[in-house]
Amino acid sequence: MNNYGIYAIGAALVDTEIQVVDSDLQALNIDKGVMTLVDEKRQQHLLEHLHDKLVASELACGGSAANSVIAAQHFGSQTFFSCQVATDKHGKFYADDLIRTGVSTQARDHAKDGTTGKCLVMITPDAERTMNTHLGISETLSVDNIDEPALQASKFVYIEGYLVTSATGKPAAIKTRELAKAAGAQIAISLSDPAIVEYFRDGLLEIIGSGVDIIFCNEGEALNFTQAPTIEAAVEVLKSYCKSFVITRGAEPTWVFDGEALHQVHAQPVKAVDTNGAGDMFAGAFLAALDQGKTYMDAAAFANRAAAVVVSQFGPRLREGQYAELKNAL
């Protein structure tokens, strides 16, 4: 029986990243800076119009929680990821790519007929990421995808907030939180996206239930979730939902509440090229640091450093040498 530092559950999405300008988004009637769920026909329409702008690998194993556990695995934690893929070529690629990174998964065992989810990530010159996602088979992720032995053998359990959009994914997230609490694991959740918080706040409250150990969010998500007028007021409201939290604020200092005191941890100065995956990298690096005995302050400093590297280039993942250099710093 393996022991894991981090168990996570979330959507399995094959990413395609495209460099665009604001006029492309406007011409195609795409809302900038948020994640929008689309059907397969709409996603294909967008790809046909933007195919000449491809800047990254056409296929990349992605999804928010997957990006986080891949990072954590590279930083020295043992991780497990529960997800749902299809038996199509993209599903096979996804499971193989995940395993290549060292992350354990039940993806192959649970694959079923359908279409593996895909995310079209559009990056504008200001480094903002805009996502149009077709969940495909990921929308059917359910309690059946939870690997209870792996969860019960984990120190941290990480729940992707995007699961709130799925009729079966939300109950799976709730069940994951209940199982984690029973197992004595620390429960972390990401709020995922300002639009998700705006439209699915009640569902997120159901997932959080009587409270979790750690909430990861950015400033916009914190304000939307708490419905507070200022970030200072949001900090106080967040304390009623979790024991600790992290609010990332781009180039501004990260706010970290460790359960006792509120700290500000300076972000690493960097010229941002692509913010896709910044929050995922932060969460993965932060949890990996905690898993390895670091303090909240040290974990936040390390996570800021890792996020600064990922936003300085295209794509949500780092090169092997970059992971190794950061791991040595940890």
Automatic annotation (TrEMBL):
Broadest EC class assigned to this enzyme: transferase
Ranges where the Carbohydrate kinase PfkB domain occurs: 56-317
Any one Gene Ontology molecular-function term assigned to this protein's record: fructokinase activity
E.C. number: 2.7.1.4
Keywords assigned: Kinase, Transferase
CDD domains named among the record's database cross-references: adenosine_kinase
Domain of life: Bacteria
Record family assignment: Belongs to the carbohydrate kinase PfkB family.
Record's protein name: Fructokinase
